[in-house]
Amino acid sequence: MELAMVGLGRMGSNMVKRLLRGGHRVVAYNRSPEPVREAEAFGAIGVQRVEAVVERLSPPRVVWLMVPAGDPTEQMVDRFATLLAPGDILIDGGNSYWRDSVRRAERLRSLGIAFLDVGTSGGIWGLESGYCLMIGGEESAFQSVEPAFRTLAPEGGYRLVGPSGAGHFAKMVHNGIEYGLMQAYAEGFEILQSSPYRFDLGALARLWNQGSVIRSWLLELSERAFSRDPQLESIRGYVEDSGEGRWTVLTAIEEAVPAPVITLSLQMRFRSRQPDSFAAKVVAALRREFGGHAVVPAESLPEGDR
Question: Among 17, 178, 223, 244, which one carries the catalytic annotation?
Answer without folding.
Answer: 178
